[in-house]
Design brief:
mainly beta
Amino acid sequence: MINKIIVLLMAFSIFAKNSQGQKSDCHISFHGHLIDIKTRESIPGTLVRIKELDKAAVSDSAGVFSFSDLCPGQYSFTCAVIGYDTLVKKINLAKSGHAVFELSGQELGTVEISGKQKKEALSTVAHETLAGVAIDEVRGESLGESLKDITGLNSIQTGPGISKPVIHGLYSNRILILNNGVGQAGQQWGSDHAPEIDPFTASEITVIKGAESVRYGSDAMGGVVSLQPKEMPRTPGIDGELNLVGASNNGMGVASIMLEGAFGKNLAGLSWRIQGTVNRAGNSEAPGYYLDNTGDFERDYSAQLSYRHEIFGADLYYSSYNTQIGILTASEVGNLADLDSALKSSKPNEPSKFTYKITTPYQTVAHNLLKTSGYIYLSDDSKIQAIYSQQQDLREEVANDASYTNTQVNSVADSFFIITNSAEVEWETRYLNNFSSEIGISGSTQSNYHKTVDFYGVIPNFLNYGGGVYAIQKWQKGFWTLEGGLRYDYLWEQVYMYNENLEYVAPLHEYSHLSGTLGATCQISDRLTWNFNYGNAWRPPEPNELYGKGVHLSAASFELGDSALGVEQSNNFSTSARYESPKLKVELGVYYNIINNFIFLEPTGKPIYQISGVVPGFQYTQANVLYEGADLDINYHFTPRFSIVSKSTIVRAYNYTIHDYLIYVPADRFDNGLKYEFRNFGKVTKPYLVASNVYVRHQDRVPVNNYDYAPPPPAYTLFNAGFGFFVMSQKRNIEINLTVNNIANTTYRDYLDRLRYFSAEPGRNIMLRLKIPLWPEKTVNND
């Protein structure tokens, strides 16, 4: 496979070099690449005009623009975009070619924004965004894995196919995932329920590292991960792109296609987009053996219709996510002796080979989202927007003994069907004296139908109604931004279940709480920014944490709830400083998060006997804990093309209830890499080469009376590399990216992977990614 990849890339290079010879008689083509002179990032949406010809073009998402059918001569290229100084560059064209245009960002405090655009205040909460080439480099990976390169983030896993993000040690229902502006309301409980989202629908992913409960409610107690699609098209015509991803380790192949367009004339303002993804993977391979039954098969699609007017707009969006995920065969054991042998063995006892076939045990997931939204400007400084959404999420787990039954119903060991309806109305306005406000009201209802072959299960049936009202006030003047907010939430929830005496009961719970936030940001100088944030947040216990009692097949565990659990309450203090110069960018953030009644799943040390076999036992409990840590991000340019990136993530957690460390906390993670950006040649632009080293420390901060079924694994070191470039072919700017993870094929286990009890992590993996525009780049002619 490696030889095929090398041949393919050499063919691209030869094509690019041989395409430089062009006729020079008014058939000259010219391509330009716009980049930020400091960050070296591409600048999309820039208007580029040739003064002498009165022709114009707009740079695409990769910052590239093009002109064709030019005559030899000297031309003045004027580049203008909001936030940057206008650049005029004279170029003498004798033949077709390419050039890089470096734009300088305007200094803070000098930009004036008028009309319907809202002036954004500096954020008082640390955040980071993946977009452009950065997000393209992680296409094909799960959401949790793709975010691990961001400082402060880890991922919690259940084998190679299931991963979810961890922010400052917190995950699941404490991390809100926004899918196109809607809070994801799937099966968030547990470490094995990955977000039911197709990452290919997003053009950027923003991570907010800190409590955002005032804006979004209790699910944002630990932070927010927001996946946003790119803006809907406004220029009449049709456009689209094709993403292809291949991986060597598990034979994964991904194809994702997107088509979009906008209407003109009588339908001006109306646009559309459709998108679909197919992902197929077989058994993953750890060094020396395959992980049996770890394949997956995913099929997703989405569609959006949008209308934009000068003062109002509306959107209709629908997405469907469908996947089948195999559960590691080695995690299913028949008796106590087999479990003890599996926990002590360096690799699974069952022989395996590569196959795409998925057998029992496995889980299937189907998630459908329907969203309608609209907004209207009451004035230049006042806007009302509303969102309604419905989500349906079906998850089924099929047991190992499914082959012993002749009916499909009996083969399903667990079935969860959850329906969520939510609505929100928000009013944003700006006042005199630099004040602005956001006032909102939201409501939701959620029901879960749990069907099993037993009276008990991981989560019982429930019905809830909730609502909240919030207000956020901002003041911004000069170098200062101050922010404060309050939110009140109420939740009514009733659970329907059988008790231990097989009596049908329906316990009722009601919760209400205030949340608050205070924050400040100061632009100390052109290069130095400081912010501080305090967030008070809360989270009620989930029904599975209260009343769960059953085998979680995909997590290979028996989980028992505690009906006496109380409400979590958090007081989170965080501060960060960011320094940025042409050569050096440094960001340091620290946090101190006190959580009372923190709910977590704790191993009991006692395996549970079931008809299907023996599984490790876990019990939900709570304690008063402290999370604290630091994130350090350093980017230094030795030269304009050669840079080093260093990222450190450190988390500490202490359990004050037992006066010892808290279990299942991410180990220290250090990621250091080098990047070299080569000069453009011919039609090949933005070529680069990266190499990185990831070191994850042994987690020795675990409680002394630790009933975990296996000790924390040793520290491990991984070496990764990659390179990529753009190549212009038939007026299409194709992006190519190749990465090699775990080059040395190191054997290791990760502390936050539940299946580390039974197997190692996957080994070396080579991934090839292609992003291909489906239509040639358009040139705007203003004649």
